[in-house]
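INFO batch 0412 | record 1 of 1 | parsing
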Amino acid sequence: MEFYLTALILGLCLSAMSLGIFISMTIFKIPDITTDGSYTLGAVITAVLLTAHWNAIAIIPVVLISGAIAGTLTGLIHTRLKIDALLAGILVMTGLYSVNLTILGRSNVPLLNVTTIFSSLQLFAGAVYNNVIISVIFITIILLIVGYVLRTDFGIAMRATGNSKSMTRALGINNNKMKIIGLAIANSLTALSGYLVAQYQNFSDINMGIGIVITGLGSVLIGEALIKWWNITSVAMSLVVVLSGSILFQLVLAFTLSIGIDPNMLKLVTAAFVLLIVIIPRLKKK
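INFO prediction complete | emitting tokens
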């Protein structure tokens, strides 16, 4: 039971990243590979500041700003320099590897003897149950904030930019500015996932973000499939379903490990599972 609760906690921690990818890929139709770098950036900054005896809550604004800067760089390269969004994300992600390594100082930093957001709040005697509740509270706050932003006039303009650039341009909306802001928000959420996962796993590693975009993409694809099957039109419900997709994705991986699959094959299983999610709707249409 605790094994699946661990997967649930990890799914909740990664759901902020899934919400970020939902904004970049579903709303703006931008395949943002910056995710790999900004996720690690959030974890690296968290580890460095926690070992410097910062309060876990005080680190959140720093993590959000750092993720926003990474997303802004990708947006500026894409919109101002007219470079393809995929290549822009790869360039920033590659540069962030050196930045992250410089900030961290070494390849791995343990967080066993520091006070994290999970250890500072003791709501239950059992550590696993305590972590579940803290994760749920944290992600619920993020979900409410993102849902509120997307329902404001600014959020509607941002969503309209992704749907029809010509229409929003005619309405006087600066599409490039919206893309930059959207990518900044998306990578802030991704960095926040790094912040949570680093504290939950009690370490930060320079390579922990490699391939993490696949996990986020798989979560979003599950969410999109459920949104289409259930004909969901509400923005708030769409975000909840994407969050559920993140949890479901981690539970599937946990089930894969529980039936005896070699952990070394986990990345292959992840890629195969994402491929399966992508092709099922197409096979259904045929």
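INFO post-check: The chain is about 80% helix and 0% strand.
INFO record closed
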